[in-house]
Amino acid sequence: MKEFEQYTDSQLTQEIRQSNKEAFKVLYLRYYEKIYQFLWYKLYSDEKVRDFVQEVFTRIWQKREILDPKRSVKAYLYKTANNIFIDSMRKRSSKIQYLSELSISSQQTGEDIETRISIATAVAHLPEKQKTVFILSRYQGLKYSEIAEVCKISIKTVESRMAKALEFLRNELK
Amino acid sequence: MKKEGSKYINLCVKSLTGEISPVEEKMLKNWLAVSSNMKIYDMIKNLWNLTEPPALPNMPDKEEEWIKIEHAIVSEPEVKYKREKRVFQLLDKGIFSNIFANRYRTAGLAFATAIVMIFSIFLIRNIAINLSFEKFVTKNGQRSKILLSDGSTVQLNYSSSIRFKKHFNKDIRKIELRGEAFFTVKHDSRPFIVETENALTEVLGTEFNIWNRNNETRVIVKSGLVKLASENSTISNIILKRGQMSSITGDSGPQKPKNVNTNRLLGWLEGKFAFDHSPLREIAEELERAYDVSIKMKNPELETLTVTAVFDSTSIDVILSSLCLTLGVQYKERGGNFVIFK
Questions:
Q1: CB contact under 8 A, B10 and A40
Q2: Structural domain of residue B116, as residue ranges?
Q3: Are residues B149 and B249 in the same domain?
Q4: In sequence order, what are the residues at sequence separation of 6 or more whose Cβ sits closer than 8 angstroms to the Cβ of residue B204?
Q5: pLDDT of residue B251
């Protein structure tokens, strides 16, 4: 298994296509935290994130035969995660959002915490489409081209949603 | 104008993410030559810096999670292995399934003990999660808006705090409030109860404002129905409807409902100050909380003068000037400390 850890995403994808479980495990461990983070920032709660992450990777494995080593599996993972999130939103009768579960260490005091809570809450209030783009860029560090692929939109739309997100935050935090 | 502005905001953001092209960078530089645009850039840069990803609570162990998904995707399980796995899948503990699988036919007692241990760990962990509280605090000069797990929102005014269980109970939603907050409560089968120093306010789904300072609680209802009771004896309670206000001082029962102009009195939500026959002492305290300054009165009789007014919170000086003009008094300031005198 050690050898697979050195593989690039593309090489891993090649192996996974051929049902190589060891390679899939490496991919899983490599991206687990990122996908978990992304879904957690979107849902702002622990509740379903764990199950969703398992669902993301399960789907990847189930459709392993159509994986394309020439395309970004990272984007594909995020795209799957985003789709699962959207599907789950549709199923809910009322769009309930969850309070941020920021972990605040008991040693910290002062203005920092209150400001950070307000900001995180403001981000949690962003309209869904803007929130997804903002989280992928600011928190997950994805490039605009990658975000475009994940959300199935043009780069121009990514840019416009980012600008709108910043405007929204500026107004929320006034 | 708006479209143009948004185009440059986009460039500002791109320069912060490092995706800006040389051509765009030039355009941005030209635009930044104007100092008011530079201000916008600084504001966006500040926002960007402030939006550091928040720390996540405990993430599950990915190795453990892998073991669970491995069960799901394994194509050809060994038959002997499969039987053991099914039992432990029920308990869903990845680590232990490996240990037991190897020690085929362990003593029944050891098995049972392990199960009990595992169950109690889970039970304790779940209880701990359900008991955990969330607390939000604002300081002077600070306001905040908080979204609750049932979809309700709380707007917290200066120098206030709320505290509540992270996950509301199945039959009740309860929040502790000190200071002032405006609640927009989502309709739910569970009652929503706000506990202040000396009162309990209960609603089903509605919009209302609660002010609690100096052992006095005031409730103003914007829409819906609210039941207000003293903390000590919930027997004497009153129902408030839209446009009504009542208050509880100390241990007394609630006062008779009074009709008020909610738009005016809830001006704080829009950054205004609204006072309705309020004593100057109370006005001074509100201003102290909003501007984080100190306001004292040289002559004690000034404290009980009452004022009815609405101020746009521009600057503390403007507000104090108009107040003093109205009352025929004066004020002076020394480094954030104000004194009002005849």
A1: no
A2: 62-130
A3: yes
A4: B185, B187, B188, B191, B192, B224, B225
A5: 82
